[in-house]
Each structure stands twice: as C-alpha cells, then as structure tokens.
Amino acid sequence: MTKKVKNQKGITLVALVVTIIVIIILSTVTISAVFGDDGMLKKAQEIKDTTQNSIAEDEGELNTLLTEYANLMGGGNETGEGNPDEPDTTPPSISLSTSETEDSITVIVTASDESGLLESGAYEYYLDNVQQGMATTESTKTFTGLKASTEYTIKVIVKDIYGNPATEEVKVSTSAPEVPGTVDEAKPNPDEDGPVFIDTTPITDDEGNTIVIPGGFHLDEESGTKVEEGIVIEDEKGNQFVWIPTGTYQTSSGAKTNNLTRRLYEYTGDNKPANVTEIEGDNQIREGSMVASYFYGEGDSRSGFSAQIDSFKKSAETTENGGNGGFYIGRYEQGTGNVCQKGLEMYGNVTRNQAVEAADAMYNGNKYVISELINSYAWDTALNFICQTNPEGYTLATNAIGVGSRHTTGGNINDKYSNIYDFCGNCCEWTTEYSESSINKDGHYTTRGGIFTTASSWAASRTTEITNQQSANISFRVQLYIK
User: Fold this and answer.
1) Is the pTM of the predicted complex or chain greater than 0.85?
2) Angle CA(131)–CA(137)–CA(142) in degrees, nearest 5?
3) Domain that holds residue 214
4) Does residue 260 contact residue 339 with C-beta atoms inside 8 Å?
5) What percent of the chain has pLDDT over 90?
6) How many whole angstroms separate alpha carbon 208 and alpha carbon 252?
7) Nearest-CA neighbor of 417 among 448, 385, 447?
8) Residue 165: CATH number of its domain
9) Could you tell me the maximum CA-CA distance found in the chain, to the nearest angstrom?
10) 215 belongs to a structural domain
C-alpha cells in the first residue's frame, strides 16, 4: 500500500533571510532616533539643561529681591549680605559748589548714598555756624542780606535713610560792589567838569582817601584832587557841596583825625590858637561869662531832631563804624531861590523853621542823598577840618574875619578855606542845635559863625536866638549825606 505525505506550513530560508534584514533595518532606525545627534535622549538632555538654567536664574533674581527687601527693612548692610548685625554706617558722599553776589551766596549740594537719602529733612544749612531754618529736602540754598566783600563760612550736613551724616564746609566771600559806569549827557559843562555818576560811587583822591560821590553828581572843575584841598561835587542844576571827612584821613603833611563830634572852641586872644574841647554826645556846652547860654546836641529830647541826627551819624560815621567816612556841606551859604551857588544874594530874612523846611526840600525824594539844615555835629566837624587843613590853623575858629559889608555867596575870597566859602564870616547861620539862656526865655534856637557887622563874633561862636527871629544878616547852610 502507498503512503501519502501531507502539506505542512513553515518558513523558508529566503523568508528568514528577508525577516532578519528587515529587523536589522528597523533596529538601525530605532537606535538612530534614540541615540543620534537629533535623537530623543539628546533632546531630553537639552530640555533638562534648559530647565535647570531657568530655575537657577529665577533663584538668583529672587535672592536679589530678597536681599534688597532685607536692606530696606533695616536688616542688611552696605555689602547686601542682609545681616541685621551689621547695619549701614557709611555716610553719603557730598560736594558743594557756590555762586556769589554783593549781598548773597548760593550753595548747590551734590549728594549720593547707596541706601538713599533721608526722605524728609536730608539737608541742613549753616551760615557762620548758625543753622538757617529747619532741615529741608532742598539741595540748593541762597543766603541773602549779606555784606559785600565779606567772608562767610557755609556748612552743609546731609543724612542718609539710616541717619548717617556727612558734613562739608567751605569759606566763601561775597563779591565787591560794582563800580557803576558814567555818562556825560547830564553834565552842565561837558568840557570842564567830570562825568555824572549814574549811581553812588566811591572814588579815591591823590592821597588814597575815599570819597563817596552820590548818584546824579559830578566833580566840579574847581574841585581839589586831595581831600585837604576841598573835593567839590555839583548837581545838574549847579548846586555845589564840599566833602568833609570823618575819622583818620591822609594829607600831604601826614595823617589827621577829624572825629564826628560837637566841640567847644574857646577864645584865647587875637592870632592865638583856640582851646578846643570835644564834647561827649549831646552834653551841655556853656558859653558866655556874665550872661550864660547853654547849648545841647540834637540828640537831646528837647531839640526835636533826635531821629534826624541818628540817620546823619549813621551815614557820616567812619567806614570802620559802618558809615561812609564823611558827609557834605554847602560850598556857600544858601542863596536866594534856595540854591547853593556862587554870586547870589544871601537867603536871609528867614526863621529857623523856614530854614529847616527849605533845606529839607532841596533834595526831597532824591534817590541818593538827604539834605537838611546843618546840625551842630556837622558844623563843628567841618570847622575842625578847615582848621586842620589851612595854615591859619585854629585861629580860624575864634578870630573874626569879613568885617565890612555883607557880600554875595562866595563873594569874598578871604573867606574861602578848603574850597568852602562864607563859613568864617559874612552872615550868621541857623543850625538845629538846641539852646537856652538864663535871661532869654524865648530862645531855644542857635546860630553859628561870624557876622560881617562885628569883630566880636567868629566861626565857632554860638548865639541864642528867639523863636521867630528874622534878619537879613542871618542865613543858613545845607548839609548833604548819602542815603
């Protein structure tokens, strides 16, 4: 009998080979996808690194914020370590810059601090060690009302938020007064006189003395070049005045001292020097032997001129005492028309009160000067100046001149001393000095100076006059001083 073989399923050799090749190809692709340059493992590592870097950066920023917060809350230090046991003790850095005028100094402060400046009142300002106002947030400060050409010490204290102070100090001077320019338009005689000063201006003479020229005036062509010769100023109308120095001044023969004070000049005989006594303040001066008269300075409460005399003294005092170092008096006795010019009839037949009003009105409202009826301080200081600067010396105070007839203003060349006319003779002149007499109960007014009608009066003499006295032989003189 014949045996049949059945069909059996299986894998052929060719199929096996093909299968193996496919597996190898698939394995190669898989390995490349996982381990290649752009493989999954590479990508995963990159993602991990990026994530870690981002976390580190965030942690750094967070730490910085935490440190700053700790500093602000007072727990840090200047290194930012946040150690509450080591607080910020470093003061701010500070520098100053200044600018100056005649009467002010401005200081500008530049300050910085890592922790910041105090939000309220970081800046304190001191002038010559005196605090100027409360602490402030302003980094600029102007000090006003200062003196020209004067050194001041400026100190500034700046504090940070922890109260650490920084101090800076500087010495600085205000600027010198500007010397104003001059113009020629207002000169009465442009070819002969000096230029008109726009503002009040100090000048110096040939001996180095300072003379203060008020605004609106110019030096007259007849002015001396030295104080001793008589410095003459003139306004645009032709009124003239002569500078009287106070304190120590220089002459060609040496230094002289002319104190601003009242004086008693006592007669000692013809052509002999007078005995001169300086009077303290407004104290009594007694003149006359048989009939006594008493004279008191304008500061006496009875005179009515105490306020005026204070202003005059303040202006006319020496520069060391804060004044201008002098004042002016009329070059002539006042002439008709209430002017101080040469060749005019005397302004006579005027009461003392009328003379006061006329003198005040001469420069009423002027920006630069004050005019008044001459007072006893001005009269005696001017007379002392004349005696100091002329060969006749103090005989000029007590020897009469000008006997003969009354002359016009500046009309007698023999009554001209240091460029001042009519002072030693001609007419008596009203002053503001207070007086009283043992027999003349209607007195209280005083005239000074010699009179042409008699040889028994002289420049230093004082006479008690009644209230409403008027005479052609009594005139007056104006004093002028710088505002």
Assistant:
1) no
2) 55
3) 182-482
4) no
5) 55
6) 11
7) 385
8) 2.60.40.10
9) 207
10) yes
